[in-house]
RNA sequence: GUCGCCAUGGUCAAGUGGUCAAGACGUUAGCCUCUCACGCUGAAAUCAGGGGUUCGACUCCCCUUGGCGAUACCA
């Protein structure tokens, strides 16, 4: 077989040589330890927490080392394309603080095009090269024929796939190939694997790869004649990955562990095509418990809408909180570092692949919420106010004016109890924050809780006394001593401890009295400090709410 | 089915042959306290099972089990 002739038959239109591409996409001019990473999403427009998780690793690795982080759209599967998806990907990631230096629709870059669908000639050039080397060949198997082979293999308990004796198109002569092509038969280009097909797995040659996260990986070499170019001339992921990451000069390929099984394919492809391999970093996957089965499983874009990034934006999680959370599950020493450096910028943390876990972590909403509280408590009220305004504009526009009209008022509310060494940590995410403070807005103020049963008959008396003694100028302790006085006068213990000692001689204690006031003022039995709230509400509204509750 | 990855409390995990096996979330007892939060002090809770190697194994090897993943002209 004259492989050169075959290559020309298959790829008559490919004129550029591999060497020319090496010149078009030269080595990047970067410091020796700078890392070049990439995110390669397919344009379905759906990204979930798991994608963010991976993107974060890429981003940190690149930007921490003075390298480059670029975006490549892996649109080799035309069935999956969704309009506007790329913008969604870029915007969502940007919201969470992840920015690309290069790639699709961003800062440009000279290693493009960054859409795989526009890189056809490059792939074909290297497919042609492999054909010339006698290491790839056209395969005319139809899907029905492949299905038959699969059925036979299954029946014989053999390994699945096209390899060895099943790779019947390997043996086609030039004339046969030419005839089929002239007859209009469609075909794919397959790798002619040099892996052994008749040895048991343990005797097969093993490849060794040094993984950035998992250390030395040893697995049986590939022996499958995988498809590298589909019938439409577009490459499969395997081939596109090898070509693109070489010519885009990626140094570190960060991808999910679901790619581990196909690593031998990639190794063989890199060898045959003559490229140096990047460092692979196979990340563990974010998991969740499936509600139906109760089992742990990988995040799924179809099944887990609540893990969509949009969900977190919708709920109003602050991007900084999500980043904190992701980093704590990404690097096991992050939490400790954060405890020691509570105020440090997130970029000051040295992210390493060695500190990444290689077993899948379960997504933990509790933990996210806890981290979010700690994160928000460090954010100044003015910034939180803006965050709330931005969030509401997008998801709850009818309340946006609250966060824009009277900034001073809102900021006092958001800062409620946050001063001092032991600040309150009430705020978690925007939706929750609004509910938490909604009683400050007259339109949303409503009585939600019942007064304590033991004080229900004294409500009028308590509030009458309260109004009578109320002085908006009182400081906090003056104010509270008046509450104590009212409590005593009406038969309640001024101190809860007294009540606990002799419950029979009291109707209740001062807490019951203040709860009545709380409910009149906030509609809730639980709230931050009443005095502070009154100061924010103002005297007029304070008195009005008490009176309204009495009527 | 075959192949691969993984395996410390409910969850995230430190640990790298000799530890009373860190820490965080959650749960829980209490303290603080006008409620709720915050904070503080405690508690319960983990090395999947079985074989080796070793004076000694959570740590190394093997098997089993379990979970996850891959077995596409999807990525």
Give short descriptive properties of this protein.
single chain, 551 residues, mainly alpha, Rossmann fold, Arc Repressor Mutant, subunit A, 3-stranded parallel beta sheet, 3-stranded antiparallel beta sheet, 15 strands, elongated, RNA-binding
Please provide a written account of the structure:
By secondary structure, the chain is mainly alpha-helical. Among the domains are: 4-14 and 121-283, HUPs (Rossmann fold, 3-Layer(aba) Sandwich); 378-436, no CATH class; 445-551, Arc Repressor Mutant, subunit A (Orthogonal Bundle), CATH 1.10.10. It is 42% helix and 10% strand. It has 22 helices and 15 strands. Strands 1-2-3 form a 3-stranded parallel sheet, with helices on one face. A 3-stranded antiparallel sheet has the order 4-5-8. It has a 3-stranded mixed sheet with strand order 12-11-13, with helices on one face. Strand 2, helix 4 (85-95) and strand 3 form a beta-alpha-beta unit. Helix 1 (3-10) runs antiparallel to helix 5 (120-132) and helix 17 packs antiparallel against helix 22. The radius of gyration is 33 Å and the shape is elongated. The structure holds one RNA strand of 75 nucleotides.
């Amino acid at each position: 077989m004259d492989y050169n002739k075959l290559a020309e038959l298959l790829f008559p239109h490919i004129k550029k040589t591999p060497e020319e591409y090496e010149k078009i996409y030269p080595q990047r001019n970067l410091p020796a330890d700078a890392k070049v990473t990439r995110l390669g999403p397919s344009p379905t427009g759906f990204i979930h927490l798991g994608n963010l998780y991976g993107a974060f690793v890429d981003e940190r690795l690149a930007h921490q080392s003075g390298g480059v982080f670029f975006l490549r759209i892996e649109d080799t599967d035309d069935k999956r394309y969704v309009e506007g998806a790329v913008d969604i990907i870029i915007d969502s990631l940007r919201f969470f603080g992840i920015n690309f230096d290069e790639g699709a629709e961003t800062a440009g870059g000279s290693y493009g095009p960054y859409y795989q669908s526009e890189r056809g000639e490059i792939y074909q050039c290297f497919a042609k090269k492999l054909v010339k080397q006698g290491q790839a060949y056209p395969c005319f198997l139809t899907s029905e024929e492949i299905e038959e082979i699969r059925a036979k293999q299954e029946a014989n308990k053999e390994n699945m796939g096209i390899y060895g004796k099943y790779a019947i198109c390997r043996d086609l002569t030039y004339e046969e190939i030419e005839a089929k092509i002239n007859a209009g038969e469609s075909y794919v280009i397959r790798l002619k694997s040099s892996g052994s097909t008749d040895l048991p797995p343990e005797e097969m040659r093993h490849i060794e790869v040094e993984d950035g996260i998992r250390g030395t990986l040893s697995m049986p070499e590939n022996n499958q004649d995988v498809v590298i170019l589909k019938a439409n001339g577009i490459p499969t992921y395997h081939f596109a990955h090898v070509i693109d990451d070489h010519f885009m000069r990626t140094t570190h390929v960060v991808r999910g562990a679901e790619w581990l099984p196909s690593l031998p394919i990639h190794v063989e492809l890199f060898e045959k095509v003559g490229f140096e391999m990047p460092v692979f970093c196979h990340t563990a996957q974010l998991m969740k418990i499936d509600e139906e089965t109760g089992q742990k499983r990988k995040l799924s874009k179809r099944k887990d809408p609540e893990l969509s990034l949009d969900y977190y934006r919708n709920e109003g999680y602050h991007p900084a909180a999500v980043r904190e959370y992701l980093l704590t599950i990404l690097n096991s020493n992050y939490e400790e570092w954060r405890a020691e450096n509570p105020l440090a910028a997130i970029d000051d943390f040295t992210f390493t692949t060695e500190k990444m876990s290689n077993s899948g972590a379960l997504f933990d909403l509790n933990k996210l919420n806890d981290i979010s509280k700690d994160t928000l408590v460090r954010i100044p009220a003015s910034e939180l106010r803006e965050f709330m305004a931005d969030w509401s504009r997008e998801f709850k526009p009818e309340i946006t004016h609250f966060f824009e009209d009277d900034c001073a008022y809102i900021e006092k509310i958001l800062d409620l109890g946050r001063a001092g060494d032991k600040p309150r940590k009430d705020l978690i995410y925007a939706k929750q924050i609004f509910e938490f403070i909604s009683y400050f807005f007259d339109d949303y103020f409503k009585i939600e809780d019942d007064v304590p049963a033991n004080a229900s008959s004294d409500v009028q008396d308590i509030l009458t006394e309260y109004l009578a003694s109320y002085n908006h100028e009182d400081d906090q302790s003056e104010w509270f001593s008046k509450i104590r006085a009212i409590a005593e006068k009406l038969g309640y213990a001024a101190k809860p401890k007294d009540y606990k000692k002799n419950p029979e001689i009291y109707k209740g204690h001062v807490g019951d009295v203040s709860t009545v006031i709380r409910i009149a003022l906030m509609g809730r039995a639980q709230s931050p400090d009443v005095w502070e709230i009154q100061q924010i509400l103002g005297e007029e509204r304070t008195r009005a709410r008490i009176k309204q509750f009495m009527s």
